[in-house]
């Protein structure tokens, strides 16, 4: 049984995000909560290509302590030379499920699965096929203020049968109760192509337990990686259960 204080959030830990780094976290959105993670990003691939995301939004809903449902929407503008395409990327649906709790050398572990639709979005960004992706996301608590997290997975682009393997490795530092920093190495191994390695870092500021802001940026480490990006995020969560009104009458039962 859940007490009222737990049910309505007074005892919930601070909000946990899958942004601003590329490493998805293993934490599940609390039961009956909706969590919305927004990111506004400018990315430069080279002097002839850049993209704007305004915003990319991850919508999450906690089913229970082990499962959350996920929906990703993105308003996107891509400029290549003198041509610009603007619209909505194919909508992505998925879930995250908890697998293991942290114990000794065993990290806290969850599994994330997504399917990117092929036609549910603007025509300029449609793909031939639906595109699956998955990740195992893991995290170790090193000290009270330092954590180490990493992801391993793969994704498909909806245009070819070849997969792209993904890795991420990030360390997070809680500078104060409100302010946190991270640094991250991540990359992609596309089938039949050279590996793409990147680095990023950033900070988060906890406004309250249910509301957080972030700022991040990164750059490519290999020639085939994007040149750089910068991103600003605002994320929050809220309970979908309305707290019952109380009156002055109290009844006891034996």
Short description:
This protein is mainly β and 254 residues long. The protein has one helix at residues 4-7; strands at residues 33-46, 49-64, 67-80, 83-88, 92-100, 108-116, 131-141, 146-156, 163-174, 179-190, 196-208, 211-220, 228-239.
Per DSSP E runs of 2 or more residues, the count of β-strands stands at: 13
Helix content: under 10%
- Remind me, CATH topology? Lipocalin
Overall number of domains: 1
Rough outline: globular
Which regions are unreliable across 5 or more consecutive residues at pLDDT < 50? 1-10, 248-254
Q: What's the N-to-C terminus distance?
A: 19 Å
Number of helices: 1
**Gyration radius from CA atoms, angstroms:** 20 Å
In the sheet with the most strands, the strands line up as 1-2-3-5-6-7-8-9-10-11-12-13
Estimated structural class: mainly beta
CATH top level class name = Mainly Beta
Estimated share of beta-strand residues: over 45%
Name of the CATH superfamily: Autotransporter beta-domain
Describe the structure.
Helix content is 2%, strand content 59%. It is an all-beta fold and 254 residues long. The protein has a single domain (21-239), classed as Lipocalin. The chain is globular and about 50 Å long.
Structural topology:
Blueprint: H1 4-7, E1 33-46, E2 49-64, E3 67-80, E4 83-88, E5 92-100, E6 108-116, E7 131-141, E8 146-156, E9 163-174, E10 179-190, E11 196-208, E12 211-220, E13 228-239
Antiparallel strand pairs: 1-2, 1-13, 2-3, 3-4, 3-5, 5-6, 6-7, 7-8, 8-9, 9-10, 10-11, 11-12, 12-13
């Amino acid at each position: 049984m859940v007490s009222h204080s737990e049910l309505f959030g007074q005892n919930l830990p601070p909000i946990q995000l899958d942004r601003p780094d590329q490493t998805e976290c293993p934490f599940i959105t609390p039961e009956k909560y909706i969590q919305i993670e927004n990111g506004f990003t400018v990315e430069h691939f080279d002097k002839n290509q850049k993209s704007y995301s305004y915003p990319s939004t991850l919508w999450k809903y906690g089913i229970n302590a082990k499962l959350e449902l996920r929906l990703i929407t993105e308003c996107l503008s891509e400029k290549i030379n003198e041509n610009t395409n603007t619209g909505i990327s194919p909508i992505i649906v998925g879930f995250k499920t908890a697998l293991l709790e942290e114990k000794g050398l065993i990290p806290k572990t969850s599994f994330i699965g997504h399917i990117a639709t092929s036609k549910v979005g603007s025509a300029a960004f449609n793909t031939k096929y639906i595109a699956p992706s998955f990740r195992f996301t893991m995290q170790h608590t090193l000290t009270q203020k330092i954590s180490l997290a990493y992801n391993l997975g793969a994704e498909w682009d909806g245009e070819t049968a070849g997969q792209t393997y993904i890795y991420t490795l990030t360390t997070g530092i809680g500078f104060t109760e409100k302010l946190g920093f991270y640094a991250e190495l991540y990359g992609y191994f596309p089938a039949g192509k050279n590996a793409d390695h990147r680095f990023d870092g950033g900070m988060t500021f906890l406004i309250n337990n249910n509301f957080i802001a972030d700022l991040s940026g990164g750059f490519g480490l290999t020639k085939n990686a994007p040149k750089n990006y910068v991103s600003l995020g605002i994320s929050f969560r809220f309970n979908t259960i309305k707290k019952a009104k109380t009156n002055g009458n109290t009844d006891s039962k034996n």
